[in-house]
Amino acid sequence: MKPQLIECEPRAHADSADTKNQSRPRLKDKLRRWGREAQDKSHWAAERLMDRRVCVGVTGLSGAGKSTLLTSLIYQLSHPQKSQLPGFAPALNGDLLGAELRPALDSGLPPFDYEGCLAALLANPPRWPQSTRDASAMELHIHLRSRRRFRGEGTRTLILELRDYPGEWLMDLPLLRMDYTEWCRHQAHLIGTDTRSTLAPQLIAKLAALSPQADSGEVDLMALWGEYRSFLLDCRAQCKLSYLQPGRALLKDEDYGVLPLLDLRGLDSAQLAALPETCVYKVLQSYYNAYVQTQVRPFVESHFHHLDRQLVLVDMIGTLFAGEQALEDMRLAFAHIADTFHYGESGLISKLWRPRVNRLLFAATKVDQVLAADHDVLRQLLGQQLQQTFSDARLRGLPVFSEAIAAVRCSREGQRNGRRLLMGHDLGGHYLGFENAEIFAQLPYEDQGWQHYEGAAPPQLRPPLGMESGHVPHIRVDALLNLLLGDKV
Ligand SMILES: Nc1nc2c(ncn2[C@@H]2O[C@H](COP(=O)(O)OP(=O)(O)OP(=O)(O)O)[C@@H](O)[C@H]2O)c(=O)[nH]1
Ligand SMILES: [Mg+2]
């Protein structure tokens, strides 16, 4: 340390005249930037207060259809002549003039890759957008004709703030409310209650046998972390589970080392706190705390603290056909996630410093995979599943809606031998006709009932050809827009 100090000091003196001269423009730059930021902030605040800015939180597990819906929404709203949004009031009466995508003020996030996602959908052959790997933000400025009684016709702009992110990150929201010990107990409980323990019995036995007091230098924690990541990936691939933590373990090959100790019995919190810093418990606790502080907290603060509306997307078809356990796990995931949000009406001031979600929408996605006759049942099933979960919203009397949508309709419905069937291209590009297993309004009560869905999932479809002409077909995206923004347009 000392030699460094002796070297630095004289240089600092020699440069001081120069630095003074340079610091003036730098200070000016800074003041200018602060001025601009303050102006932006006050614009932002004024727009919120005047209801010209709405922040919509799109909430959905990985593969729920977030990025595809965002792309379809932006496309439909930006091309009012070509889109088909009869259920969205401004489009119906000719007041929707168009929309443009702008970077999100102050978000510090890269812009949503709309061009990339749209290019994939419009390619020949068409493709789905890539699964999202990082967070992004955007503002959609929706231009509307306004008709005021005394001031005649004019235009106004409604700004929609939107974010996209990998669905896996959502699984980490509950970590904000748990310390490491609570999280370990939570994981031990989960492993003990569902089939995940059968996937990696050896790993689970190792974690259960790992003593919190052991010296961390004598245990290869990173090798265990590698095994734990593979276990989480298997839970998703083989059991279609979604409530898997830490969520980022499913995405990147990064060494977070966030492992649960499965047996903390016999040690109370005071004894755990008194353990030496080098023991396994303390080292894993520090990894966990670092993960929560550097990964989870910034994500939650930037994505969910200013929400006015929440749109929860669920691949209800995929979950239902994956079976009882997958459905139960989806419900569990949302039950833990829902606690993160603040629901209720926002007053004038709280609109700025602590906004609340004042409208909640559930949407079953990709319903073009089943016959139109089943869409309503899906909508109802989703509502039933999630209404209890988002009980805080219900208790506060929030308007809650449920819809069944397809951001991009990939099938057509036809008839053969008097039976309705769907036609579309599978992911390999083969044209097929199929009939889906009927979806019942009530969930099965027992295993036998679940057999109806087992192995009967409808095929995954490729986006349709011909969208480059400007027409992106969808199912009820207009109705969704009306529920989401009908009172603001
Ligand atoms: N048939 C049909 N399939 C869809 C539709 N939207 C999405 N999909 C399918 O669902 C997959 C996932 O969609 P995404 O939009 O990437 O889902 P996401 O929620 O952004 O997923 P992550 O980025 O992994 O969090 C796509 O690759 C398609 O296979 C739709 O409207 N219809
Ligand atoms: Mg995505």
UniProtKB/TrEMBL annotation:
SUPFAM superfamilies: P-loop containing nucleoside triphosphate hydrolases. It comes from the Bacteria. InterPro entries: P-loop_NTPase, YcjX-like. Residues 8-18 have a biased composition (Basic and acidic residues). Pfam families: DUF463 (PF04317). Residues 1-34 are annotated as: Disordered. PANTHER family: ATPASE, ATPASE-RELATED. This is YcjX family protein.
